[in-house]
Each structure stands twice: as structure tokens, then as C-alpha cells.
Design goal:
A: alpha+beta; eight-stranded mixed β-sheet; 15 strands; 15% strand; disordered N terminus; B: elongated; 39S ribosomal protein L37, mitochondrial (chain B); mtLSU_mL37 (chain B)
Chain lengths: 543, 410
């Protein structure tokens, strides 16, 4: 009823109510033809997609872009869930492809860190004893209770708890020691257990058999039975400690090197469920540990735990090291992607400059160091094959910070490891010469900047509601099993009226985010004297 | 045709319900196979003979979880004691607040008075950049952190049955954790390295103080949300000639009121740091007041007086456990007073206190007494939240940072 009314309303408006005089200068001397366009199906689809990307690019604020990413799905995307600490056997090829990362195993930190080596060596000598004391204190000198749960084995909980407190101490000691000498540490914000989430699309993944079978039924799919569809991917993680600064770090390698064919990442076209990553319906979220509008927007350093290694099926030390590399690539890419989203880029609009972060994975004794350069975030559809840019991840093996703890003393502290860590801290963020937010508005960059009160409040509420991923009031639509048997597989109830979505050829999951009635305004609350406006205004981005 | 048949065809629920009923009434049809087989000379056996045996009962499977299950709380529990112990947990508050805390800990109070050294240090103005960072910390704790958990239900006393929409946001626990840790980080980063190297910062450590008062056993379970320790005990020069608030008479209330009586307890006191550690001396203990976690045992809301009482019992609990580790379990009058600083906050108001622990003999109201110097109810800011979509911080008060800094550096 409601839809029909709107329809009638618009028809009235759109139908021409007057006659128009023909233009005088309709003719030009040379004929002006419209551009010749490829009218194949692929080209038309591609043009339609491009127009969507262009619309998202033109949106002013970060939050609107995030809502726009979720516009096509009322019930959320069916996302491949990449949790930080679930790493199945042999996941490396998939993670490399999905994060488009070229992994370079190194013994020492990359060349960009060469000039801080000497200074870091001296500082490591100065802080050595304090770090030793802290390690002894945290492992031996305290009586602590572990928070037990049925979700994690006790050895994982213990290792992560001790690692978390050692990391806090190490960060505290190094920051305090360098605080006076290194000004960027003084203003850096330190987050404990922040929320890191990232969302992007991956193209070039094979379709499941069910989709293949379904396509076979339709003639128009004849020539493109195995055409790929994008997979939405969602990363969820939470480091122990993350440091953020106002300025981005310097690139590890020049940005032009991103297109170097040596860094090409092999394509992984098998379905993610074959590796052990499964999917869930949810809205895509990009959260680097703070809401848009915070001052310190660029990641500097993050510390992650490795307790999950203890709970993995053991396929040998090499597999465990690969798992750590996977964790590092996932978490570094995830954090940087979320940061880049706050700069106005999305999975559809590529970065115009590289972003860098430093990642440490540790259990207190074993430390692995990773430096990650994000060059590109676009890998949807054909871009999986065509995008020449790749991301770079440098990573070390797990290195022992100390050998053992005997009689309340740390034995064999490895200064080289400490030096690498301090080099991470000495890496100074720098002002960039280019525009950091080319795709955000000049005036309004976040929702809080919007002048219109109603629009600002509505967008703020909607954005927070969307990213909270709280369950809907009504259950999502479902085809019941009995319907599948008695209605779909066997046509036994032909006398019934066809009312269910699958009987009307409707896919309820194709519903768009704004396909709902806006909140109703009760008559008493409508503006005086008489207002015909029954429903509140919504401000969904027009994409 | 019966109506049921139509209904069963049309209604899936009825159909399944009736299915068993209908099928259960079926009479097996004699197919004539038995006679046929007999005629052929093939023996026919009754199927029921083979199922006559009762299935074996299986024993209960002992499910081994991720960790050892706690023992049942009965009289065979190793920690069971006949004598009840009056226990104060960090989630409980005293009924009479600060007055009851005074009686329990035998403490006199110097109100609005902190040791002179702290007052001196608090007056040193911090640079502007530091205050900018403090503001960032407040905004981060109240606005920019991304936690989205269920906040307490909103109730309107006028319409108690009305269900408001449940709001997701930063819980008070997380807000306090972020704010206090950020403040401490800031102070440490801006302090001299020599000072920070003599200190150590611990998060969420538990102490347990057991003591007798008037032949009854008391135990305080305390959680220091942040415990700053140092390599030597903190000392304060204190004034004796100031008007103290003497220990009040609680009559008709007894000082044990609203303390829960426990029968499962460990009689010893516990200080979380081992004696072998050099930086074991407690310096400042930070206590969070999380509104959703701390409550009266009755449903009345927690009063400001009760919040202040919490500071005193907390400081006393930590200091006692430390003193007992230092001088032994049976020590009464301490050879040297133990000082400890305490900061309690609910994320907005700060309550500062310094406890001078002179005695652990808390019987009666006479003899040596402990002293509590305090400065309460300092507001760091008026409000910090999203105000119609815009992050707001109203009326920042720079004075509070001065006191926190002074507490760290004293």
C-alpha cells in the first residue's frame, strides 16, 4: 500500500505538465556524437560498478562512506571471517592473496631502519636491566589469578596474560626512557586491548558448487557459468597494546616499488572454507581502535599475543612460524586498511600514498618483528588480476629475548632483539607533502563537522548502530526445512497461495539497507499547523 | 470426508502432530509370507526374541574441561571454618560509609588536608602540552574508544514499565581503565627517567587483609586497579596539630552491619608482590568506582559517603597486607608507620587520600590510631560525551592533574 502511494506520488511529479519550446541552436556545424561505448554485458556491468565507486568517492565524510559500503545489503554481507587468532593449517597462500601481501623473510630489520641502529644499541644497554627486572617480576614475582573460561584452554590464557603484562611493562620502560628524547612518543596515544576491525572485497575466488548448479538453470548464464563474484572479508582482532601518532610513518620502500613485478602475489582461487575460514552475515566495519575524529589517526606499533599457537593442531615448528607470519599479515593489513578508511579511502577507492605500521608478536620470551607497507587496498572483481600494486611485509622469525629465568635472574638476555624493538620506537613519523585525505570533503570530513543538526544526529546514530552489529529486532528470513522438502524439492502443496519469497522469485537478502519504512511521526508531534509529513527524514548516502 | 483430513493436508503443524497418532494405530497386515515360508520348510523366528535383552546402562562420562572444577562448598572443603569471617569485597560498600570505615580501621580523619609535600608539588603548573594530552585522554576514555557493550538499562521513575532502547557504548570499567592508565602514562613520560626507574606499575592486583577486632575476624579483599610500587617505602611528614574527625559512635548500628559472613576463607593476609622483589613497596594505589559493579547488598543506590568509605577501607586493606608481609602476621603497633597514597575515581570525580597506618590493633577506640588525610570530590571535568553528534568536553579542571602528578612524584 505504502509503496504504491509513493509510486503514484512520483508519477504525478515526473509526468510533464507543460509543453516545451524546441531549442533554437539545436544544430551544430559538425555532428556531435555520443562516445562509442562497449555494450557487452561485462562492460555494462563494469560501468555500473564504476559509477558506484565514483559515488562513494564523492561522499564527504568517513561515516557516510562506511554506511555506503553496506548499502546494498539490509541483512549485512556474508563475510569471510578472518579472526586474528584463528589460523588453520597451510593458510599462508590464502592470507597472502587476500591481503595482497608479498612476504619477505628477513634476519634483521629492513634498510629503512639502518640509521637508528647505533642509537638503539646504546639505548638497549641502558634499559636492559630494567627490562630484565620487569620480566622476572611479571613471570615470577607476582601472585595473580587467571580469568578462566570455557572458551580458551588454561595454558593459552596463562601465556597471554603474562605476555600482556610483560608487553605493558616493556612499552612503559622504553616509552619513559625515550619520552624526553623522542617527542613523538610523548604525544602518542597508547591503547590497551583496542578493537581493530577491517572490511574489504576480494575478487577472483571460485564460486561454490551450489551457485554453479543454480546458474545452470538460467539461459542467460550460459556463457558465464563460472564467473567469479566478490567475497566480502571481515578481519577482527585485538592487540595487547597499540600506539598511535598524529603523523604517518615514513615508507619502507619507495611507493613506485609497489608495482615491482617481483612482489607479485600468487592468486588463491579456492574457496576460503577449504582452508578453514568460514562466513557469517554481518555489516562490514572498519575500526582502527577509535572513532572518526580522534586526533592521532596513524598506527605506529602494535603488540599481539601468540597464545593461539598452543591451542593449534601441531603440524611442526615450520607451520607454527607460518601461522605467526599469517597473523602478522592479517593484523597489519587489517589495522592499516581501517586507518586508510578513516583517511577517506575504501576497498573501492585505492590509496594514493603508502601507509606503514610495525607489528610485534610475542609471548614474553619469543618475539617476532614485522614491518608492513600498505600500498593498495583494491582487489575486488578484475582488480585481483589487473591491479599492479602489492603490499610488502618484512618479518623475522620468533627470536628469543632471553634464555631462562633462574633464581630470580634473567639468563642470556639477547640485546639484538631488544635493539630491534627500540628501533621500532625510534622510527619517527613524518609530515607528508601530499594531501592525506584527497577523497574527503574540504569542510566536512567526519559527521561531527556537518552543520545540519538532524543530518548529523541521524548519521551518527546510524553509523554507530551499524558498526555495533547488534542483532535485528526480527529474525532474518529463512527457508524452513519443511518448506524445502515439501515445497521446493517436491511440489506437494501446489494448492496453497504463493506468498513466501522463494515462491515469488525474490531473494530477501538482496534487500537494500534503506528499503524500510522510516520512523513514523505521531500526529501530535508533527509540526504546527498541519503537516502531511508522516515519516521522519532519512539521510542514507545516495549510492 | 472428515475435517481432520483436510486440516492435515492444509496445516503442516496439524499434519505432523497427527502423523504419529495415525501411524501408531495401524494394524500389521497379514501378507501370507509366514505360511508360504512354512510350506517351503523354512523356519520362521519371532523378531521379538532378539530384542528381548535389555540394553546395558552406560556409566556417566567424566567430562574433563579446560581447567579443574572448583570443589563444592560444603563442610569438607579445605577452607571451611566454623567461625564466620566478616568479609568486605571490592564490589560491596559499608552501610555507614566513611564513619563505619573509621570504626573498623580505627582511623581519625584530617579532612581537606594532604601532607604538605603533596600540596607543594600540586601547585606546580604543568605545561600546556600536557593538559592537551590530558584532554585527549578524557576524550578517548569517554568518546573515542570503540567499545560497544550493553550499558545499564535506562529507567524512568515516572513510567517504570516503559522499555527504553538499550544503548551500547563504553562501559564504566573500560572508561576508568583507559582514563587512569593514560593519565599515569602521561605523568611517567613527562617525569624524569630517574624517578620512573624507581617505580613500577601493576594492573588489577589483589590483596587480602585479615585482622581481628573485638574478637571477631575481618577480611578485606581489595583489587588495586593500578598499583604503583617503588623501591623504597613512601614517607610523608605529617602534621599532628590539626582538627581531626574523631572515631564516631555508630549506635544503634553495629560496625559489622552489611558485611557478609563467610565460612570459606584463608586466615592469612596476602600481599600480591613477593618479598624477593626489590620494588615491592606500595606507593599509590588507584581504585576505580565502577557504578555497575559496586553496590549495596540492599537495592539502595551507593551514596557519596559510602564511596569515600571505600577509599579508606581499600587503602587500609592494601597497607595492612603489606605491613603483615613486612612485620609478620601477629604485629600490632607498627615499629614505623606505613604510608600509602590512594586515588579513587569514577572517571570524573577524584578522591585523594593518604593513609598513615600506625597500628593493626583496631580493638576499641582508644590507644594508637591510624590517620587518613584526604581531599575529596575533585571534579576533573563536567561532562564529556557526544552532544547531538559532536564530541564535547566541558569545563576541564587542570587542578586535578596537579594532584595526581604530586601523588606520583612525592
Amino acid at each position: 500500500m505504502y509503496r504504491w502511494k509513493i509510486h503514484r506520488f512520483y508519477l504525478k511529479r515526473l509526468s510533464r505538465q507543460y509543453s516545451q519550446v524546441a531549442l533554437q541552436n539545436e544544430y551544430s556545424e559538425t555532428p556531435e556524437y555520443p562516445p562509442i561505448m562497449d555494450n557487452s554485458l561485462q562492460a555494462r556491468k563494469s560501468r555500473k560498478r564504476e559509477s558506484l565507486f565514483e559515488k562513494i568517492k564523492k561522499l564527504d565524510t568517513v561515516e557516510e562512506k562506511q554506511i555506503a559500503l553496506n548499502m546494498p545489503r539490509y541483512y549485512g554481507w556474508q563475510c569471510v571471517m578472518l579472526h586474528e587468532d584463528t589460523i588453520p593449517y597451510n593458510a599462508m597462500p590464502m592470507i597472502k592473496c587476500y591481503t595482497r601481501s608479498h612476504f619477505i623473510p628477513v634476519e634483521n630489520l629492513p634498510n629503512a631502519y639502518a640509521d637508528t641502529a647505533v642509537a638503539a644499541g646504546e639505548i638497549s644497554k641502558e634499559v636492559k636491566t630494567y627490562i630484565e627486572d620487569a620480566i622476572v617480576m611479571e613471570t615470577d614475582g607476582l601472585e595473580r589469578d587467571f580469568i578462566l573460561s570455557n572458551e580458551k584452554p588454561i595454558n593459552v590464557v596463562k601465556e597471554d596474560t603474562i605476555a600482556r603484562s610483560i608487553v605493558k611493562q616493556v612499552n612503559r620502560i622504553i616509552s619513559n626512557h625515550l619520552g624526553e628524547k623522542v617527542p613523538h612518543l610523548l604525544s602518542a596515544q597508547v591503547d590497551y586491548d583496542p578493537r581493530h576491525e577491517a572490511f574489504w572485497f576480494v575478487g577472483g575466488v571460485d564460486i561454490p558448487t551450489s551457485v554453479f548448479k543454480w546458474r545452470k538453470k538460467y539461459s542467460w548464464y550460459k556463457n558465464r557459468l563460472d564467473e567469479n563474484v566478490d567475497r566480502p572479508v571481515q578481519y577482527l582482532g585485538s592487540p595487547f597494546v597499540a600506539l598511535r601518532s598524529r603523523l604517518p610513518l615514513k615508507p619502507l620502500i619507495p611507493y613506485s616499488e609497489a608495482e615491482n613485478p617481483d612482489f607479485k602475489v600468487p592468486k588463491f582461487s579456492f574457496g576460503p572454507q577449504n582452508v578453514g575460514y568460514f562466513s557469517r552475515f554481518r555489516y562490514g566495519t572498519n575500526i582502527p581502535g577509535f572513532w572518526p575524529g580522534d586526533y592521532d589517526e596513524f598506527g605506529f606499533l602494535s603488540y599481539h599475543g601468540r597464545g593461539h599457537i598452543l591451542a593449534r593442531n601441531n603440524y611442526g615448528p615450520d607451520d607454527n612460524i607460518e601461522a605467526l607470519h599469517c597473523q602478522a599479515m592479517k593484523s597489519s593489513f587489517g589495522w592499516l586498511l581501517a586507518q586508510s578508511n578513516y583517511q577517506g579511502f575504501t576497498t573501492y577507492n585505492d590509496l594514493t600514498y603508502p601507509l606503514i605500521t610495525q607489528t610485534v608478536i610475542t609471548n614474553g620470551q619469543l618475539w617476532s618483528f614485522y614491518a608492513y607497507q600498505l600500498n593498495t587496498v583494491v582487489m575486488h572483481n578484475e582488480n585481483m588480476d589487473l591491479n599492479p600494486k602489492h603490499n610488502i611485509c618484512f618479518g623475522t622469525k620468533p627470536l628469543k629475548l632471553y634464555e631462562t629465568i633462574e633464581d630470580g635472574k634473567v639468563k642470556g638476555l639477547n640485546e639484538e632483539v631488544l635493539k630491534m624493538l627500540i628501533q621500532f620506537y625510534l622510527n619517527t613519523p613524518e609530515e607528508r607533502e601530499h594531501d592525506l585525505k584527497p577523497y574527503l570533503g574540504k569542510e566536512d570530513q567526519v559527521v561531527a563537522d556537518i552543520v545540519d543538526d538532524n543530518k548529523r544526529c541521524w548519521l551518527e546514530d546510524t553509523y554507530k548502530h551499524l558498526v555495533s552489529n547488534r542483532p535485528r529486532h526480527f529474525l532474518p528470513p529463512e527457508t524452513y526445512l519443511w518448506e524445502k522438502i515439501y515445497k521446493i524439492q517436491h511440489n506437494t502443496r501446489f494448492h496453497e497461495a504463493r506468498r513466501r519469497p522463494f515462491e515469488l522469485d525474490i531473494n530477501p537478502f538482496q534487500r537494500r539497507l534503506n528499503e524500510h519504512l522510516p520512523p513514523y511521526i505521531p500526529k501530535v508531534l508533527r509540526p504546527y499547523p498541519r503537516s502531511k509529513k508522516k515519516f521522519e527524514t532519512t539521510y542514507y548516502p545516495d549510492v | 470426508m472428515k475435517l481432520t483430513q483436510v486440516l492435515n493436508r492444509q496445516h503442516i503443524g496439524f499434519m505432523f502432530k497427527k502423523h504419529w497418532l495415525v501411524q501408531g494405530k495401524r494394524v500389521p497386515i497379514d501378507t501370507g509370507v509366514e505360511d508360504y515360508l512354512k510350506a517351503k520348510g523354512i523356519p520362521v523366528e519371532d523378531a521379538l526374541e532378539f530384542v528381548s535383552e535389555k540394553p546395558k546402562p552406560h556409566g556417566r562420562v567424566n567430562v574433563v574441561g579446560y581447567y579443574e572444577q572448583p570443589l563444592p562448598l560444603d563442610e569438607n572443603h579445605p577452607e571451611y571454618k566454623e567461625k564466620p569471617c566478616y568479609t568486605l569485597k571490592s564490589t560491596n560498600v559499608l552501610l555507614e560509609g566513611i564513619s563505619q570505615a573509621q570504626v573498623l580501621t580505627k582511623t581519625i580523619i584530617a579532612e581537606n588536608k594532604l601532607p604538605p609535600k603533596i600540596e607543594e608539588l600540586a601547585e606546580i603548573a604543568a605545561p600546556k602540552a600536557i593538559h592537551e594530552n590530558v584532554k585527549k585522554a578524557i576524550l578517548s576514555a569517554n568518546i573515542f574508544d570503540c567499545e560497544q557493550k550493553k550499558l545499564p538499562k535506562i529507567k524512568d521513575p515516572e513510567r517504570p514499565a516503559y522499555n527504553f532502547r538499550r544503548i551500547l557504548g563504553i562501559t564504566d570499567r573500560r572508561r576508568n581503565e583507559i582514563l587512569t592508565n593514560r593519565l599515569l602514562q602521561l605523568i611517567e613520560k613527562s617525569s624524569d627517567t630517574e624517578v620512573t626507574q624507581t617505580k613500577y606499575v601493576l594492573n588489577n592486583v589483589k590483596s587480602q587483609a585479615t585482622f581481628d577486632k573485638d574478637d571477631e575476624l575481618f577480611q578485606f579483599h581489595e583489587v588495586s586497579n593500578i598499583l604503583v610500587t617503588s623501591n623504597r617505602p613512601v614517607k610523608h611528614d605529617t602534621e599532628k596539630n590539626i582538627p581531626f574527625v574523631e572515631i564516631p559512635n555508630l549506635y544503634p548500628i553495629k560496625h559489622t552491619v552489611t558485611l557478609s559472613q563467610e565460612h570459606f576463607y584463608n586466615e592469612s593476609s596476602k600481599y600480591p608482590i613477593k618479598t624477593s622483589v626489590a620494588m615491592k613497596h606500595p606507593h599509590t594505589t588507584w581504585l576505580h568506582f565502577n557504578n555497575t559493579e559496586v553496590s549495596n547488598i540492599y537495592e539502595t543506590p551507593v551514596t557519596p559517603m559510602q564511596i569515600l568509605g571505600r577509599s579508606l577501607t581499600h587503602a587500609f586493606g592494601v597497607a595492612t597486607s603489606y605491613a603483615k608481609q613486612l612485620y609478620g602476621e601477629d604485629v600490632k603497633d607498627l615499629p614505623e608507620p606505613v604510608h600509602i597514597n590512594c586515588i579513587e575515581t569514577d572517571g570524573q570525580r577524584f578522591h585523594f587520600g593518604v593513609l598513615e597506618l600506625n597500628t593493626l590493633n583496631v580493638d576499641g577506640n582508644e590507644g594508637t590510631k591510624n590517620v587518613w588525610y584526604c581531599k575529596n570530590d575533585m571534579k576533573m571535568y563536567d561532562s564529556s560525551c557526544y552532544l547531538s553528534g559532536i564530541p564535547v568536553l566541558e569545563n576541564y579542571n587542570p587542578e586535578v592533574y596537579g594532584y595526581i602528578n604530586a601523588f606520583y612524584n612525592c
